[in-house]
Amino acid sequence: MPDSNETPSPAEPHNGTTSSASPAPNSALSPLEQRVEQIRAERSRKQKAADEAVRQAMLEGEIKLAEIEANEGVEGRDFKAIFSSVDGAMVVVRKPKPVVHERFIKKQLDNKASVQDLDELVRSCLIYPDRPTFQKICDTAPNMLFLVSDAIVGLGGKSQEGLTGK
Prior knowledge:
This protein is mostly helical. It has one domain: rbstp2171. The chain contains six helices and three strands; from the N terminus they run αββααβααα.
């Protein structure tokens, strides 16, 4: 029995139970429990890799955003960056030309705006990435078309939420 002045080893349990710092050896687990542990470890590894890929994409996006800002003006006034929550991909759009904006707003107010109209609006204002890459982003995260179009309408002076009364 350790002396009361001795510090217990971190690998040893302090209260007679299994220490959470050192998991029980796999031999103490049933084959089913071992399989579940393998599945959990693999899931955790995949999630960490996916999280790191998103983080890297967003860091690269920040660098690209600085380059765009040097050429396009002020972010939030002249252009807007939208990041995908799925994979961190960045889309940058500029303020729409007044005639394009007004045509879209009229269709929106008349409840006649279609997905094709959204697509045309976005593609007319797209700064980054190129169109094929933007399509791949939308294939991965279909809601991006709506998020990006809302950002464009906001840059033009109105939000779609304000138009629909939400």
